[in-house]
Amino acid sequence: MIGHPRETRYGKDYSMTRRRTIVTAAILAGALGLTACGTNREEAPGSGGGAASCDTSKGTLTIGMVAPLSGGLSELGLGMRNSADLAVDQANAKCTVPGYKLVFQAEDDQANPQIAGQAATKLASDANVIGVVGTLNTSTSQVVQPTFAAKKIVQISPANTGPGLTLGADPINAPKRVVDSYFRVATTDLIQGPFAANYLVQKAGKKNIAVIDDGKSYGAGLAAEFAKQATKLGATVVAQEKVGEKDTDFAGVITKIRGLNPDAVYYGGEYPVAGPLSKQLKENGLDIPVMGGDGIVDAKFVSLGGKPGDLATNVGAPAEKLPSATQFIADYKAGNYAEGYSAYGAFTYDATNVIIQATAKALGSGAYSDATRAEIVKAVQATNTQGAGGPIAFDQYGDTTNKVLTVYEVKTDKFEPVEGTTGSFEG
Amino acid sequence: MLSTLLSQIVNGLVLGSLIGLIALGYTMVYGIIQLINFAHGEVFMVGAYGALAMFTYLLPTFIQQQWYFALPLLLIAGAVVSVGVAVAMERFAYRPLRNAPKLAPLITSLGVSIALQEVIRVFYPGATAAIPFPNIFIPGTWTISVGDGVVPIKYSGILLVVVALVLAYALNMFVERSRMGRAMRATSQDRDVARLMGINPDRVIVLTFALGALLAGIGGVLYGGFYTNINIDIGFQNGIFAFTAAVLGGIGNIRGAVVGGLAIGLIKSLAGQYMPGGSAYDYVWIFVVLIVVLVFRPQGFFGETERVRA
Questions:
Q1: Fewer Cβ atoms within 10 Å of its own Cβ: the N or the C terminal residue of chain B?
Q2: pLDDT tens column, A29-50
Q3: ipTM of predicted complex
């Protein structure tokens, strides 16, 4: 390249290039600054405040959260964040943990196990973290569970339904508790899958069902449990197909199952796929209901294409119908959060309160130290109380003893609970 | 099942046209500066968001409801936003690296890709999740009865295929027949000699980026109309397949990009139907075909064998 004409030109323009570099750097710095502002703006409203009258002389303790605050599942994650934030604010206002101010720290996992792992490491490295609420996804909990267990940090999920998290590798034949510090207030897919099958086959009378899942821990597990029970009840599972969690084009799968004349589709996965899938089914000449699990119960399911008649099961009884949840709903409204409390709001609020109560019990009038975490885990295990989402107690595996589920149906533009379907599945 | 086969071919053609439309941008930029511009998928995504922003925030309701006004406006907005982003990208990210080692612009393109995704995610209201895209224009489905069943074809799918093929043909004519097209071909063959002939390579390169972005922006709007919702991952997802299509067809070749795109669309839908493993493995077959083709024809369907460049 020596002596090439371009070389001389480049040399002449050198000062220009440097100035340009500076301008670019300035623009970048500005953009980064704006990004930071954007993030700050997302900070939950109503945090802080109210604790002024309490004695907080012993310092602060942190309640963590790992949930998808951005990405496709953020509607659910932001509802979780706000509900936990509400519980922490209330505890501070009521001086529930004497001597300490509680701080809420929500970490974004983008529903991605790898990012969840980083978030968990960050929280676990903080000696003041007394417990963590979350995650939303079974796949992310599989990653964060050992991290928190190693530090004896109690973790309560309001939403994980994968059986393996509490019951080990062989949940049906050889259940074995995985870690002592993990609990959940949602029931498992061992109940949810068969519960859905009972409704779809016996109540709705569907006999030829196509089962589709997204191949993730949650979706594939749920779909398998559903298919097992549906077959047992005499229905035919005409196809078992898989789609990618980031796919948007389902025409291929739909054309394939259309030839098999299904009268319903059961989808194991979440609403970013389920909504468009439901819409494309109809557009491709298969106007049949889609049924899914708790992962599709969100208003976003309908705005992305879910249609009236689509069904879903969700953990717990509907918050709107529970007398115990009316106070939570009123308080949430008063908190003026930008996002709705979504499918897991009441359970998240309960999970947070369980950690707060257990901390108060474990601390008594003493001071927080490393040993307190094990006491908190013990106190959570012994929980027996009434929450917004129903009774809360944990069995020897860390699973909730409240195994109630409800069927929801899309009426015009949102999921409504189907009357008289709240119940459980017995063996 | 004839109707199933025909339906899968229709599905494949629609997806394939979209991929081909994006692949044209990859292949043209590679042809002229030997850069695999990984940010091109994001140009497609940004076009869809730009059109949606124009529709949501600028159009009065009475125009929103008239598809024959709204659709052209959406297409123009998508194209303008995409071209603007691509030109800015070329000016500020790639031109300063024009004489740098080849890896520098390649890595830069990955950075630009991530930056564009994050800018949309952070600043576009609601872009943290999928957003519904207006479906007021040509909704509905044309259903053909074939012997044992029906073949549903969405009107928006027909639009996508027709627009993609017309644009690809127009682009081919432009490059082969017009004066500017000749300048592009000259620049791709030897930039320095082209400069000696009075061609301004910088202008030609910007034009190449702009043309690719024009197609991508229109593709973004058609994508939104067909699938009726968009999210920030669509650029990456479709960009990877478009890149694969460009390689399969012979990177640097316009006809190759379209044929490669259609081939990938058809392989995906037909393999999902007929090959073992079904829809769980449809992506696998795309890359199996890619590898087999590259083993026997490393330059792709239409590509020229690598020349030693001066």
A1: C
A2: 555 444 444 444 334 444 444 4
A3: 0.83
